[in-house]
Amino acid sequence: MNRLPELSEDALSPEQREIRDTIASGPRGGARGPFPAMLRSPELARRAAHLGEFLRFNTSLPPRLSELAILVTARAWTAQYEWYAHAKLALKGGLDPKIVDAIAERREPPFEKDDERTVYTFCKELHETHGVSDATYERTKEAFGERGIVEIIGLSGYYVLVGMTLNVARVPLPEGEPIPLKD
Question: Is residue 79 part of a domain?
Answer without folding.
Answer: yes
